Amino acid sequence: EVQLVESGGGLVQPGRSLRLSCTASGFTFGDYPMSWVRQAPGKGLEWVGFIRNKAYSGTTDYAASVKGRFTISRDDSKGIAYLQLNSLRAEDTAVYYCTREREAAALRGHDYWGQGTLVTVSS
Amino acid sequence: SFELTQPPSVSVSPGQTASITCSGDKLGDKYAYWYQQKPGQSPVLVIYQDSKRPSGIPERFSGSTSGNTVTLTISGTQTMDEADYYCQAWDSNTGYVFGPGTKVTVL
To answer: Are strands B95-98 and B102-106 parallel, antiparallel or unpaired?
Structure first.
């Protein structure tokens, strides 16, 4: 059974940093691109970024709203994807979901989602 | 930047058909995806690549495309289908884009 478990959320002051983790199980983690999606309280879904699998360069891409502040990385040996959040702002307050891309070779939607972890940015 | 448009809400009677549209510039040239999200839960993929249904998704969920509009249709809507539905597409300049979501009410 595929499982994605996020951790690392919490209350953080504006301008500070936080690192989220997504621990995967039930599939060969290194074969799949992984994405992060967030949802502000009472709002819709917003894609944050993704990281390709190593076979497809392992490169990353980000939404304009977080580019330069957030960084996605992965440790295939541990089955963990990370989201480093720097220079946090109040508008980054959201539940952050880790998702698996449906296909290894292309970006074709998110077939598995974690339960999410809440990040609250406030002084 | 690339944007998707959805109606804020759709109401349907139990057993009837609900249709949710999603429109965007040149959306017909892209694949569309649909997600269902119930209150307090993570989203679930219900349609991928415009019209394909993942395993485990009931046959009453279907997707179609016409021009730059994609449609999620729920046939024989059940009370358990009450949820928010989001369309999504990939744009080479913007990345993944989600629509604003449509709240489906079954009453």
So the answer is: unpaired
